[in-house]
Amino acid sequence: MAGEALLRVENLSKWFEVRRGLLAPPLTLRAVDGVNFELARGEAVSLVGESGSGKTTLGKTVLRLYEPTSGRIVFKGKDVTKLDGKELLWYRRETGLVQQDPYGAMPSFMTVYRILEEPLIIHKVGTREERREMVFKALEEVRLTPVEDFAFKYPHMLSGGQLQRVAIARALILRPSFVVADEPVSMLDASVRVEILTLMRELQEKLGISFIYITHDLSTTRYFSERIFIMYAGHIVEKAPSKELVREPLHPYSQALINAIPDPDPENRKRLRNVPPGEPPSLINPPPGCRFHPRCPYAMDVCRRQEPPEVEVKSGHVVKCWLYAKG
Ligand code: SF4
């Protein structure tokens, strides 16, 4: 990681209770289980994993939209894990979220203008005139122009791509330091996905905002991030600079994900190993030891018994796997 840390996440867990009727004791779903990472100021990271790996829960827990079960979130040097009241409002202003479904995330009875003005009103920013300028500037930034043509429309009058631009404008209008974008293009037509990702990347760089881009599609991370984190069954199993991770994945699960990306170069295709068969485990009763061991072609005895440590194999490249643990 380059630069000063904006955010430090230490041993963060988020577990949910799953009820099974009145008499049976509840079960525990370990959606996020002991996650560690840092994010530099202005850095973009992609968080990649299959559906059900815990990546959305991790994003929402870091934003304090879910209460952490344990661990710490340190933002700008301040422990925000248990903030409430005014201090939590400060954290809300410093952070933003772009969700997967832009239609579900927008109040259908509000115009685009009201949707964008609302966060400014909540956080008591500017006079009415100043807010108007900020709303119009935000629309320009996401290239919904001429702005007058879009400002007074309702969500149902816009396409999915246009609405996701509004969602991005809303997430950025308070000039947060840190934004989570959760599968922001997975519900959009393939034709607009690259446009939206490129726009987000441009704004992220221009405004110096730190981003976590959550996706199940490793091939889209090339538009976005300096580093990639790979998540499997509630754990981050590998963290590395993006190019290095794609070129030289170390964790057997990361290798499987990279192998699943179609490569137009037949030479590269020859080098690929097969994706391990099977499904990610249930997070209610995850396998002991390494959670990937039932699918891993390299599983050893220790993998079935003991959770692997996080090993920094080279500077900035960390993998959670017994293959790389010394001794
Ligand atoms: Fe495979 Fe063992 Fe590494 Fe897990 S710890 S990925 S089972 S080799």
Summary?
By secondary structure, the protein is an alpha/beta fold. 33% of the residues lie in helices and 24% in strands.
| Mean pLDDT across residues | 92
Strand order of the largest sheet: 6-7-8-3-9-10-12-11
Rg, Cα atoms, Å? 21 Å
Number of helices: 12
* Class inferred from helices and paired strands: alpha/beta
Question: CATH superfamily assignment?
Answer: P-loop containing nucleotide triphosphate hydrolases
Helix content: 25-40%
Could you spell the SSE succession in H and E letters?
EEEHEEHEHHHHHEHEEEHHHHEE
| Low-confidence blocks of residues | 266-274
Got a strand count? 12
Shape: globular
The small molecules bound here are:
iron/sulfur cluster
Q: What CATH architecture label applies?
A: 3-Layer(aba) Sandwich
In CATH's first tier, which class applies? Alpha Beta
Q: What is the CATH topology?
A: Rossmann fold
How far apart are the first and last residues' alpha carbons, in Å? 27 Å
